[in-house]
Structure formats: C-alpha cells, structure tokens
Amino acid sequence: MKLLAISGSLREGSLNTMLAQAAMHLAPAGVEAAIATLHGLPLYNEDLRTAGIPAPVAQLEARVREADGVVIVTPEYNYSIPGVLKNALDWLSRLPPPPLAGKPVAIMSASPGMLGGVRAQDHLRQVLFGLDARTLTRPQVIVGSAATRFGPDGRLSDSTTVGLVEELMAALVGAGGKLDALHIEEGRNQRQFVRAVVGGGFR
C-alpha cells in the first residue's frame, strides 16, 4: 500500500512538514510512504490548463493518483488553509477524473498556538467535500504548542501526539479504498476514537 503526505507549508523547518514526515515514519509496517512538495506550482489559471498541464501539476497529480491514501498536513493562516494548499487542491479538482475523488484522505495540523490549526482543518474538510474525497473523521490530530512536541532531531517526542498519529495512519491504511472512511473504527475491538486537542488537557 502507498501513502502520500502533502504539507501545506513551503517554509524550511515547517512544523507541519515535520508532522507530515512523522506521520510517514509512523505508518504501519509494510506501507510505502512518501512526501510531495507544493513548490513550483503555478497559480491556477484556466488558460494554463487548456494550454497543457504544467509539469509540477502533472507530477503532483501522478503521485496522488498512485497513492492508496493521502495525508494532508496544514498550517492555519488567518483562520483558514494556506493559499498554496488551496491552489494545489484547485488544480487537482480540474484534472479529469479528479484524483482525490473517492480516495481516503487523513488531515492533520500543527501550530505554535494552543488551538493547533483547528479552524484550518474545518475549512480543509469543506474543500475536500467539494473534491469528493473520503475524509477520515477520527481521530483528529490537532497539535497545539507544536514547537514543544518535536525533539532536536525533528522527530515527534510527545507520546500523546505519537499515539494519535499512529491511530490515524492505521485508520487510513484500514480505509484502503474499500471501507467507509466515516466508520472505519467499527470492528476494531469496538474502540472509539475521540476528538483530542494535543496539549489541550483532554483526550
């Protein structure tokens, strides 16, 4: 099985990119995991699309189509998702057939603030609904105070965060293109995944 992670941040040393890398490291054994970059994507323009899909867009499209599941990790910019991520999703929505349609998608967010990007996640879910993606609902990985959750080597050092990411990756693999991503927790020893804001004092 192949998983692809997409970080919504272009910044070198981005907390969200580190979270995407951590998610790929924490995927179940036997999973082929990779990260796609959004560097170099032109702004969506219908004239560009009709003239021929730009190479960076075609490369992203191919990687998304090839993946059995996608992880999108987004920072929060002004209560929403970054323009570079929205632009990438706009491109993908215009490539027939849309490569995210029917595909299991897990989302995460990280922020230096306490809310961890929860508002960006809400907007991202709306966008993915428009793309007909099968967005997983549990567990929600919302990493607040994210700068304290990583060690000097860039790897996740917070056990609670690690556990949530592992659960979400297992859920994504379990969705596998066949199961209903909204009900993947059923049949897993009746364990109920609950919403958790990492560092927020509840789980």
| Number of helices in the DSSP assignment | 6
N-end to C-end Cα span: 30 Å
CATH domain fold name: Rossmann fold
CATH architecture: 3-Layer(aba) Sandwich
Tell me, rounded to a whole number, the average pLDDT. 88
Count the E strands. 7
Radius of gyration: 16 Å
Tally the structural domains: 1
Going by CATH, the homologous superfamily would be Flavodoxin domain
Structural class: alpha/beta
Largest sheet: 7 strands, parallel
Query: What are the segments in which pLDDT stays under 50 over at least 5 consecutive residues?
Result: 177-203
Percent range for helical residues?
A: 25-40%
CATH class, anyone? Answer: Alpha Beta
Please tell me what the overall shape is: globular
Descriptive report:
The protein has six helices and seven strands, in the order βαβααβαβαββαβ. With 203 residues, it is α/β, with parallel strands linked by helices. It has one domain: Flavodoxin domain (Rossmann fold, 3-Layer(aba) Sandwich), CATH 3.40.50. Strands 1, 2, 3, 4, 5, 6 and 7 form a seven-stranded parallel sheet that branches. β4 (104-110), α5 and β5 (134-135) form a beta-alpha-beta unit.
